[in-house]
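[stage:ingest] chain + small molecule (S-adenosylmethionine)
[stage:ingest] validated
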Amino acid sequence: MTTLQELFETHEGRLVHKWNHYFEVYEKLFSRYRGKPINILEIGISHGGSLQIWRKYFGENANIFAVDINPECKKFEDEKTKIFIGSQEDEAFLTQLKSQLPVLDILIDDGGHTMNQQIVSFNHLFSTVKDGGVYLVEDTHTSYWNEYHGGYKKKSSFIEFAKDMVDQMHAWHIDNEKIAPINFITENVMGISFYDSIVVFEKKLRKEPFHSMRGTSSITPYSDPTLKKDSILQQVKKKLSGKKNSYFRQLKK
Ligand SMILES: C[S@@+](CC[C@H](N)C(=O)[O-])C[C@H]1O[C@@H](n2cnc3c(N)ncnc32)[C@H](O)[C@@H]1O
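[stage:predict] done
[stage:export] tokens:
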């Protein structure tokens, strides 16, 4: 089967613009969807070349949706490619968009790449991705560029926003309900991957994680004196205070 990179290298249709190192990431994440009746949304159409490539790559069974602020892009609409014109940072537009979209297998944000655009779009559209689906944000190097309102470790950058999601994903393990409550991200993100200039959120409904043991004990386990593990009493207190605690759960089994 032709790879995405091969499709790109031999593309002679409308203009498409991709960083070379993205293809490996796409292939890894998207190959399982080829030929399937999937729903995919791309924010950022430009000359429409990427829509042609996605069609070739995913096949005729894919329903492709795309968003751009430029009304000229409407001309790329066809039977299986629906185009929405509006801004990815306009909340009223996004609410309207959501009401017209099916649940998505894949969402790619390759739009304007400013911090606000990426963050507002994520906050509105992550919920439209289906359980098991993928939300991918491209060109996240703009998080380091002043002209896109980014900046190295700038709190309002998309990269810092995504790093914060890493903490939210781990809220089960953070013993402080006030600073790390279990929220929609905790319960719906199974993984966040950072590649050069791409951030990927894998959506998956999650219950409180737990671990367990099988088999027979065969050594005296080494006890690291630097680890200040909670006593069972402390863990009971935590449990009574309402914070979910996977260690407690393991001990109780
Ligand atoms: C990087 S190009 C898209 C490239 C295309 N996906 C490709 O691979 O060839 C970015 C597109 O985002 C659009 N855009 C810029 N700001 C936007 C916004 N606020 N909302 C939606 N689209 C926007 C631009 O009009 C432009 O067509």
